[in-house]
Structures are given as C-alpha cells and as structure tokens.
C-alpha cells in the first residue's frame, strides 16, 4: 500500500491550510473516505489517458471509452442505456468509471475481475466499439507516436492487448474523487454537512441502506438481488450475476453500484429506469428494505447523497498522434 | 486590434528565451504566422468550452461539437464524412475548427458569415445533432449550473440561442495553433526547416499553390473551383458555393481549406476522398495547376506541409453541471 500512503501524504500537504485532514478518519462509519491515488508510473497513466480518448480503438473511428464514460459527466453518458456502433442500444446503463478501482469486480454482473480484464470487453463488443483486438493492435502499431510511447512504457516494439488494457486500467486507477463534503465530515469537519444532510445520512444508515452501500465507494463491495422484498418490475432482459455463475439463485443479482458522485450519474439502476434520485431512493426503500419513505425522508436522503460528489479528476485533453499512411482506416458502416 | 496586440505581447514574453520572436515576421511570404489569441472575456470562453463539450445540445444526448471537431485530433473526426444522429452519414468532410476564426466564412460553401452564425447550424441539423434550438434552450435553462454561468457572462436570467452560439464562437476564437516550425522559419529561425522541407515550400510557393493557400491559415481566404484545369471526379452530390449564391458559375466552388495542422486533419477534400497527403498533393497539382509532380516533388511538398503543425490548444476538460429533475431527457431514437 505504498502508493496509497504516498497519495495520502501529498493530499495532506495540499489540504494543510484547509479544514480537512486527509486519511485521518475521525468518524467510524460504514462509508469510508476516498483516498487520492498517486500512480508510480505517470508515463503509463498518460498513455492510458490517450487510449481512453482514442476513437481509433473503435471500428467506426468515433467511439472511445470516454463516449459512454464521459469524464465531463461523472464518468457516465447519462443515458438509460448506451448507444454504440451503428447506433445500437446496449442492454444496461453505463456504470461510472469514477472510483471503479474500488469495486470488488467490474461490470454490473461482475464478469471481469478487475479493470485490466474489463477494458478489453467494450473494444470488441459488437454493440459498443465493434473492434476486433487484432485490428485495434494493427491500428496502434501503424502509428509511430503510439509505437514510441508503448516502447517507452513497456520496453517493447510489439504492442499487445495486455499493454493496451494495462495502460487504460492504470489511467482509470487515477479516477478517484476524494474530498466530497461527506468525506470532510467523516474526517472531522462538523460544518461540512447541513442539519438536513446529516439527518439524511443518519436515516440512510439506520434504515439499512449501508448494508449494501458501504466502504469508500458507498457500494461496489458485494452483489445483491435487485428486488429483495418486492420484485423489481423491468422490461430489461438482463438477469445479472447468474449469467456469470450459471447459478439460478444469482438471477437479478447485480453489483451494488457506487453512490459516489451519484448526483451526476443519473439515470439509475442497471436498466437506467429511475430518472431521478428521489425515484431511486423511493424504489430502493420499498423493494430492498420494505420501507416506504415519506417525501421529507426521501428529500433528506437525497440531500445527503448530493454530499457524495467529490473533486472530479482534472484532465488535460490529450493530443492523439496522427495515423500514418499505413493505418487501417475506420469503417463506420461495417 | 487591441486583443491581438495583447496576445502578441504575452507570447513575446513567453518566447523570449526561445528562438522565435512572435509577431515579428522577418520573411515576407504569402503564408503569414499565426498569432496567439488572448480573449478579453475568459468567463465567456469557459462557458463556450462547456457548451463545446456538451452532449445535451444533441437530441441523443451523446453528440457534442467535439464529436466531429475533436480537439484531440486536430479539430476533426478523421472520417471521410461525419456520422451524426441515428448514425447518419453527413455529406461533407468535417472541416477543422482549429484556426477557423481566420477564414473569410464558415462551412465548405461559406453559408455562414462567421463563427457565431455557424455554431447554430449543426445543433439543429437532423443528420448532425438533431436538436431544435428551442429544446436546447429548455435543456440549458433547466440546469442551475448553466443558468448561473450564463447570468455571470451575459447578465441575463433568460438564455438565448445567440448567447449559446456567441459563447461557443468565443471559445473557438481561442483555438489557434501558433508556433509551427514553418512559423518559426517565417519569423527568422533558419534552422526551423530542413533542406527538404524548405525545398518543398519553395516548390509549393513557386508552382502556384499559394495562389489559394495563403494568409495565416494557408487557406480560408477565398472560394475556388475544385477541378480548375481538369474536372474533379466524385460521387459526392455536393456542389459547393452555388448552393449559397444560386449562381451556376459557383458550382463546385468551395472555400479553400486551411493547411494548418494538415498532417492531423486527414482525409482530405470536401468529400474526404483523398486518404493521404501524397494523394492530395498529386491531385491538387494535376487538377488545379495542370502539373504532375514527381514522387520526389510530392514528398518534399508533404514534408513542408507537416511543418505547418502548430501548438495544439491545451484544453482542461470541463466538468459539466448536472441536469435537474426538470431537464428534458435525451431521446436517441427520436
């Protein structure tokens, strides 16, 4: 955990003049503060950032990771379900990339163990970027700027898909959002939350939401059934975790989504059917806890949830190296 | 021209330790150096930048100005013709936004007199963003973060389309690319170009390319017929300037594109049919000048053209304010 410790040290210096003292959690709550992340390999992060914004990893030449996980928008596309190659609609709501490194697994059904495993999926999925890995590698290998940068990071002239996903994952590790008002409160700043927000958090905690929404990401620590007390009504054909385990008992089990930056990551649920936070809180209360929150209770929980918006990653837009004459051209209508 | 003078002064200070002295053009050539641009209204630029990256200005919620004029890629999408709402293909190659403020008019056919007039077009074009202006304004007006920012910039609670396009245009004014190696040479640095690059420029100039590709943008100063000596063969139905003037003599007249950053803005021509710079130079020589360049000549002109890549705008990715519960939701399949 050397890197984490370094991150904390840097942040402590930065906030020394402020009200919060990073990484010194004063309050012992089921939600933990987000720690800043400092990579030990900035060149790899920079390469990963280029690949993150790289539309040439798609068959059409216009879809990048950032299309559906937009870092201007809380790491999501704010659609019910995403639009991919050929204007096809995806089956699930795009989860935020922010703080995704803190989750126990990736994708709603957890079918990828980590960010490296995850990153290869959307590139080749026909309804997302629709790009065979072999062709993606041919594209990158034909671009002198990329060849030089992969060489500098990995020491090899031959780019592999593992290098691509490894660099993207290293960039994604940096996409954490510390310093939310809730974290400031966790770290001892009594004035960081209003009375209403604090009441909302207390209700959230004491009525049992934290059974699933816990840890630094306020989620992402377990798979849970959507519709525990009452069944969830949805036209979505997606069945969640059972697609990975093959176990019938896992039907409609999904990874608990993070609530960090939830004000920015609308709409909600795996099918994106809850348009507002109020709607999401109401449905969660009834379906997961068997509890009908009053309008005032919903409002106070929503007020609390909005305190989970942290410092958004500051991204300098990368300049992508131009294709060479040998670069395979995009094919939007393939 | 106070702002230009200020820009020059700032740049002069910045480059005092370097080899180039901004705005002191030593060589009198038909192509002029690009001057840095310093806005007198940074808040308006910042608002315009948000709107530039704002997918909620599209019906689908996923297309922004930056989708087709990608600032990571020389201000283009590097497609033959762009893909818009519903995966529809546009009729022409997306021109670069970089240095577009230097052109005599906007769009390939010059149908917009300036950047403000231009900015409204793609928002409502059904094959681009497909968003009626009235609905775009309803969206912005429903977002508290935007209401506050428009108020700060324009002093009004009521957002108008003129405010939207005005802010986008102000941001676009900043998207100039000074300090290319060719500009360094223009400004007196003899070592900025190799012998081959200089020979390429001399050939480019003396064989007549500068008749059209002149001024600071190396283009954008006139409309010219595509296929002057020999007709241009194309399956594109686009006829250019005559669509604006109604004058038959203007058929196949197009605004001369800028050659700034041309290494990054492939493919070339209004229909994007020239995949490489070599192909474009060969075709231009034959069709516009009646001259067949040898392979060596093409290579030296291409070497010169690559010296026109300037400093790309450094963009801090904006964080977009979240929608409110009242914000009209995107509709990708409308």
The chain pair with the largest interface is: A-B, 40 and 41 residues
Widest sheet, order of strands of chain A: 1-2
Number of strands of chain A: 4
**How far is it from the N-terminal to the C-terminal residue of chain A, by CA?**
45 Å
CATH superfamily of the domain at 181-308 in chain A: Cytochrome c-like domain
Average residue pLDDT of chain A: 93
Largest sheet of chain A: 2 strands, antiparallel
* Quaternary structure state of the chains depicted: homodimer
pLDDT below 50 for ≥5 consecutive residues: which ranges of chain A? 1-21
Envelope shape of chain A: globular
What is the tally of helical segments of chain A? 12
> Regarding CATH, which class of the domain at 181-308 in chain A?
Mainly Alpha
For this structure, the CATH topology of the domain at 181-308 in chain A is: Cytochrome Bc1 Complex, Chain D, domain 2
Radius of gyration of chain A, in Å, reads 21 Å
Residues in β-strands, percent of chain A:
under 5%
Query: Helix/strand/pairing class of chain A, anyone?
Result: mainly alpha
In the CATH classification, which architecture of the domain at 181-308 in chain A applies?
A: Orthogonal Bundle
